[in-house]
């Protein structure tokens, strides 16, 4: 069983359950990965709830975010690359965002086959409204951590990310 300083959280209860079945396994990865997955699931559910009033999905917001961060219009393939969503999903989401008046398409003058995507003024306004809210919600998730702890956590998670991405 784990040493507890506070009431056990969901992940500790799960890990302790596994410890009964597999007492010889080092279950520390459950503490880290289990919490990472739980934090991600809860954070994404909160983001979905927060975006619901704007009428867009998290994936659509990812597309808007990719366009908002770019200094120039992007090809759909560039949006796909930046967001990590599939090409088919990019197409579907862009279609919906165009219909909502949040994204516009432009044909490249020197090659009419190339379509570039950019935010409309309405799309920019939505990002300008929603992104600060998202950052504030995520900042509250870090309440109780000081700057040094956040820097340490960031570096540790960066190293784990490299391992997961196969670059470690």
Automatic annotation (TrEMBL):
Domain HTH marR-type positions: 30-162
Write down what this protein is called.
MarR family transcriptional regulator
Q: Which organism is it from?
A: Gordonia paraffinivorans NBRC 108238
Q: Show the SMART domains listed in the entry.
A: HTH_MARR
């Amino acid at each position: 069983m784990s040493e507890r300083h506070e009431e056990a959280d969901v992940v500790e209860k799960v890990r302790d359950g596994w410890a009964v079945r597999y007492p010889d396994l080092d279950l520390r990865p459950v503490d880290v990965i289990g919490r990472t997955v739980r934090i991600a699931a809860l954070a994404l559910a909160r983001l979905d709830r927060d975006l619901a009033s704007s009428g867009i999905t998290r994936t659509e917001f990812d597309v808007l975010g990719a366009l908002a961060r770019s200094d120039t219009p992007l090809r759909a393939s560039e949006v796909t690359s930046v967001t990590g969503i599939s090409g088919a999903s990019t197409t579907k989401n862009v279609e919906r965002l165009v219909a909502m008046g949040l994204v516009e398409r432009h044909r490249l003058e020197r090659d009419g086959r190339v379509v570039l995507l950019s935010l409309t003024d309405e799309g920019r306004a939505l990002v300008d409204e929603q992104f600060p809210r998202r950052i504030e919600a995520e900042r509250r998730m870090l309440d109780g951590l000081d700057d040094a702890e956040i820097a340490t956590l960031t570096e540790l998670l960066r190293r784990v990310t490299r391992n997961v991405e196969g670059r470690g």
